[in-house]
Amino acid sequence: MNKILFKLQLSKDVYLMRIEAPLIAEERAAGQFIILQVDDEYGERIPLTIADADVTEGSITIIFQVVGKSTFQLSRMNVGNEIPTLVGPLGKPTHIEKFGTVVCVGGGIGVAPLHPIAQALKNAGNHVITIIGARTKDLIILENEMKAIADEFILCTDDGSYGRKSLVTEPLKEICERNPKPNMVIAIGPPIMMKFCAETTRPYEVFTQVSLNTIMVDGTGMCGGCRVNVGKEVKFVCVDGPEFDGHKVDFDNMIARLNSYKEFEKEMHNCYLEKEIQEKEAAR
């Protein structure tokens, strides 16, 4: 059992939790993730990136968005509650070295996994340019934390409610046109955002790394649920990733596989909400 030590709602459907997990806190590296299960009998296994860790406290920090039944259940848990199943760290750590100038692009909830990577790159002596974006101001997370790391910081919103009115690809293109161009780009966010970040950098031949969050069950490469096409090979995100060369990822195939479960995810979420309402009415 892993006890919830701290909980904070960052925006309408986004939550931050610090969870007691001393061994994971000691071993984790930037880019790795955990898998947790809210219901110890029949619950879904959810992969979530380790956004931070505190070895002294023996805790890890996760940031998640409510999108279905399991994340909704997790959002209902509070400080002192215990998560029955939590395993990690999983996945390959981000390769960190002094590359030169690195552009870190985060979209929406993708800013959470980007944070420890940007921090590690900065500590390695890189010039870090950070671009974060969201649909509206209310969906921006970790602004101050990312700004503290960055040598240059750009904030965008689709609707112009905060920062620059643009998609993240617009300032990314401008930075790629600089002389010299950046040495590397790391993009994390919704699949469609990562796809277009990779397409933006492709003409400039700037290596672009993306972190994929696919359907995942066991996290050990056994089930094949997280498979993606990278170049001419099939890769498993849980053991081969989660980071890959964005210019080689077949995003269209990945997006199609993710969308195939959306209606079922929505249905399960609605069923859980109806059950919760019925239980409250019965208890009156």
Can you offer a commentary on this structure?
The mean pLDDT is 89. A seven-stranded antiparallel beta sheet has the order 6-1-2-5-4-3-7, with helices on both faces. It has a seven-stranded mixed beta sheet with strand order 11-10-9-8-12-13-16, with helices on both faces. A two-stranded antiparallel sheet has the order 14-15. 40% of the residues are buried. The longest helix has 22 residues, at 262-283. The chain has helices at residues 22-27, 69-76, 111-123, 143-149, 169-176, 191-201, 237-240, 251-259, 262-283, and strands at residues 2-11, 14-20, 33-37, 45-54, 59-65, 82-83, 85-90, 101-107, 127-134, 152-157, 164-165, 184-188, 208-211, 227-230, 233-236, 243-245. It contains nine helices and 16 strands. A hairpin with a 2-residue loop joins strand 1 and strand 2 (14-20). It is globular and about 65 Å long. Helix 5 runs parallel beside helix 6 (191-201). With 284 residues, the protein is an alpha/beta fold. 31% of the residues lie in helices and 32% in strands. The protein has two domains: 2-90, Beta Barrel (Elongation Factor Tu (Ef-tu), domain 3); 101-211, Rossmann fold.
